[in-house]
Amino acid sequence: MTTLDVLVRSVRLEADRIISLELVRPDGGGLPAWTPGAHIDLVLPSGRVRQYSLCGDPAQRLVYRIAVLREHRGRGGSAEIHDTALVGRVLACRPPRNHFELVDASRYVFVAGGIGVTPILPMINLVAAGARPWTCYYGGRSLRSMAFVEEVLAAGSSNVTLWPEDERGLLDLPGILAQADAGVAVYCCGPEGLLAGMEAVCAEADRVGQLHTERFAQPPEAARQAGSGPVTNCAFQVVLRRSGIELQVPADRTLLDVVQEAVPTILSDCREGYCGTCETKVVEGEPEHRDTVLSDAEKAGNQVMMICVGRSRTPTLVLDI
After folding, report:
1. What single string gives the DSSP state of each residue in 226-283?
2. Whose CB among 78, 91, 115, 320 lies 3.0–4.6 Å from 281's, allowing a Cys bridge?
């Protein structure tokens, strides 16, 4: 999996517990292109790998901007970024990938909660530039905790409703959905409670197909299903095409563990199938998808898979590694 070096050019406080980082090429060259909704995998000084949505301008090819919320109950990545002097340091990152693409629609409703504004902001700017009708509901614990408020308002203040919880309570999800007619695409990103609530409201209104979400953690339903009983695993062979290596994956080991023994540079993070860091191209064979990253259409296409939880339905699986 290809990575590139990026230099941390600046760190800026954007809101309570949120900082932004600007990343550039050490040689000053251009960075790989990206589209709204994309994220990068950043390798921290400790070796941890974390995913961050790109929240700058896709037309600006010389700099990536990400924002990081300090998570009090996180796994250490956000604390490391907040507490480490990173300006001037060179880090490795994986080029942008996008599983939260902006679809073509007649109108858009954006719902952002807290740090979930990061993938939403470039979408708003793109839609506003194209003169498509849109509205945005941006919630947070308080105005002090909400990053990029001025940038969101600059895209079209009359289209934006700020919803600080300490002043207005929780977002009115049924009321927001009520304006989403058949041609409206609803994009939602934020904490799990917001996503689960929006999914429930859309399910009740029979509008699940209009909703597009991105998660920062494994959804509770997936966790419950994973723990509901034993999953039957079969042994299979994996061929790493670029490395010229053939490996046996026994029933009691993950594909990722076996591959990383042979190719230690393979990036991974969650090991539960929700972050997308270990996404790998499939050359031949039929993978057994067990992740919550890919859509049903993407899984049916069998072009990529998440090797931390995925296995193989065929005796041999050939990967582009």
Report:
1. HTSS------EEEEETTTTEEEEE-TTS-HHHHHHHH-TT---S-SSSSS-TTEEEEE
2. 320
In a domain, 231, yes or no: no
Number of independent structural domains in the chain:
3
Half-sphere exposure of 260 (CA within 13 A, CB side): 13
Whether residue 274 lies inside any domain: the answer is: yes
Query: What is the residue range of 10's domain?
Result: 4-97
Token representation of residue 38 = 């994309």
Residue 44 lies in a domain: yes
User: Are residues 119 and 57 part of one domain?
Assistant: no
What is the distance between the alpha carbons of residues 249 and 311, in angstroms, rounded to a whole number?
Answer: 9
If you count them, how many residues does the chain have?
A: 321
Q: List the structure tokens of 168.
A: 């207005």
Residue finishing a domain among 64, 97, 130: 97
Task: Please say whether the beta carbons of 39 and 96 come within 8 A.
Answer: yes
